[in-house]
Write a structure and sequence with these properties.
Distance between the termini: 59 Å
Shape: elongated
Strand order of the largest sheet: 1-2
Structural class: mainly alpha
Order of helices and strands: HHHHHHHEEHEEH
Strand content: 5-15%
Helix content: 40-55%
Radius of gyration: 22 Å
Amino acid sequence: MNKPFKRLITIRLITILVLTFVSSVGINSAPAFANAMAVPSLVTADTSLLTGDVRLACEAILCLAGSAQPHECSPALSRFFSIKMRNFSDTLDAREHFLSLCPSANASPQMMSLVKAMAHGAGQCDAKTLNHTLARTLGGGDAGETGTLISDHMPTYCAAYIQHEYVHLTDDLPRYVGKPDEEGFWADARDYARALAQYEREQAIKKAARENYGGGDN
């Protein structure tokens, strides 16, 4: 790992610690306080004090907190996502335990909630995964309808992760395209405009076809 990234890790970790400390003692200008007190003293910080899984856990927390993940994140994220148990709930618990190895993970209620949100939401909230986990098969019924319906309600664990105060993923929030009962689906933020335009074209074609066969707007 190169020196600039080591320094970035130290700055972000200690800044989080300062922010949580300042918040706990009731100082309103937490960000300004962190910038004034923490950053200047970090230039010579020694990150070699963190090693093994402890270091990887801290790096994973930092890497999972933002969408811009440099290649230096690979070891930590590989370690995090490699944790897999027989039961998925056990996998989430094991991943949370791993992140909790970082010394700052238990520094405040906010950090503890961050670790929990990351363990449950990381890798589970992209459009592809949402389209899989939120899909249910329609089973005929009186109308004889079949197919798949994808819910437009984002799981609470995704909201807890993406919208956490220490996470910067809001701009990458997956967005729902269309309506659930009209073949709607989730699209990643970067693909939303294209997906919406394609969806609207396809729905217009299907509507025209129904009207040609006397189906009206139904």
